[in-house]
Amino acid sequence: MSSELLAPLDLAFWHLESAEHPMHLGALAVFDARPGCDGERIADLLAERAAAVRRLRMRVRGVWLPVGGAAWVAHQEFDVRRHVGLVRLPGDDFAAEAARVAAELMESPLERGLPPWRMYVLTGRDDGRTGAPFAVLVKLHHALADGMRAVAIGAGILDQAAEPRTRRGRPAPPKSWLPGPREVAGFARERVGEVARAVGIGASVVRAGRLELGTASALAADSSGTRRLATAVLEEDEVRRVRRASGGTANDVLLAVVAGGLRRWLLERGSPIPDARPRALVPVSRRRPGTPPGSGNKLSAYLLGLPVDEPDPAARLAAVRTAMERNKAAGPGRGAGAVALLADRLPPLAHRFGAPLAGGAARLLFDVLVTSVPLPRTGLSLGGCPLREVYPMAPLARGQSLAVALSTYGGRVHVGLVADGKAVPDVDRLARALGEELAELVNL
């Protein structure tokens, strides 16, 4: 049987998962309603196109070598209908209902033994004129996709990719992986080299780690197993205007918006501003142009102390810009954010048995994930219905109550806030605070 070994970081994500802490990424894509774009038709279209994506037909299976490893193998009994669902939403407020249902669907882990993904068509009421509004919720296990791979997989089901794909020949099957004596000896040599490289990265992670848990109590919570989703939309032109006035990058501006939004939210809910700045883990893609989508997660990260203690928005932005410039000068192989690189250097058996410890140590490294997901600029559609908004969703680390994901599409930055439903029931207020913070930066 043809198979493909999971890359080390993919294996780490696979073993980090628990019932309370699912390790899947998500996206809620909202489309403009059009006559004829009914839910059943869209679900049929999704099923047809998803079945043609080879990566979506593969499941994870354990292997003998390397010890503790796993491989992607074709699922011989693959049934795409087990992965594509249709949910009809009640009520007249489609946006609110879609966010509520999407959050509930994000709570449960993906079923192991099957290809680790699900898609749901969420459809509202048809007003008889423009058709029923609909959205597509995509769940992909982090072992299956990092942000850029998720975009590549998601794009494969859209109209713009479907036609070219049908003209190409069948994709080449994955290489068969049956270890022989040379492969066994090669694994031994690789393990020795990787351990040596891991020592330097591990020392950097330990130096940057904290001996005590972070003090941002509003961002920390034991998992309740529930999720809430809130969304925000920021105008890209306004982000650029702030960047032109202040210098730095658009990403610096967005990180400052997150810091200011958190400060506003903490003050409004009566939570204390922490003495120590909460640490944001800011993922950095190591995927080079032309790297095939199936080549494993390619991630490192920077650590950023979010200046929520600074009352002046301009000073917050300056602090973020300075810290990010320092991060980039040091490179993504330094600091606690390099833990993803360390995972790439560890043998599979270490991931299998060390994942529970690693998951529990997340709060020693950072307090909140803030990630940006790159998207095509505009012009995507499904079944002839234009894509209007797309909100990325990141998984929650153990002991943390909030994850922030951003994507830019159609001249707007779409923000997806995933929160523990019990710890952060007011995540909608945080979403509004982000818009208020950007408005203040624009008016400086």
Automatic annotation (TrEMBL):
Residue span, O-acyltransferase WSD1-like N-terminal domain: 6-253
Keyword Acyltransferase: yes
SUPFAM superfamilies associated with the record: CoA-dependent acyltransferases (SSF52777)
EC id: 2.3.1.20
Alphabetized InterPro entries for the sequence: Acyl_transf_WS/DGAT, O-acyltransferase_WSD1-like, O-acyltransferase_WSD1_C, O-acyltransferase_WSD1_N
UniProt entry keywords in alphabetical sequence: Acyltransferase, Glycerol metabolism, Lipid biosynthesis, Lipid metabolism, Transferase
Catalyzed reactions: an acyl-CoA + a 1,2-diacyl-sn-glycerol = a triacyl-sn-glycerol + CoA
Pathway: Glycerolipid metabolism; triacylglycerol biosynthesis; Lipid metabolism
UniProt entry tagged with the keyword Phosphoprotein: no
Domain spans labelled O-acyltransferase WSD1 C-terminal: 296-441
Any Pfam family hit: WS_DGAT_cat
Family the UniProt entry places it in: Belongs to the long-chain O-acyltransferase family.
NCBIfam families cross-referenced by the UniProt entry: acyl_WS_DGAT
Protein name: Diacylglycerol O-acyltransferase
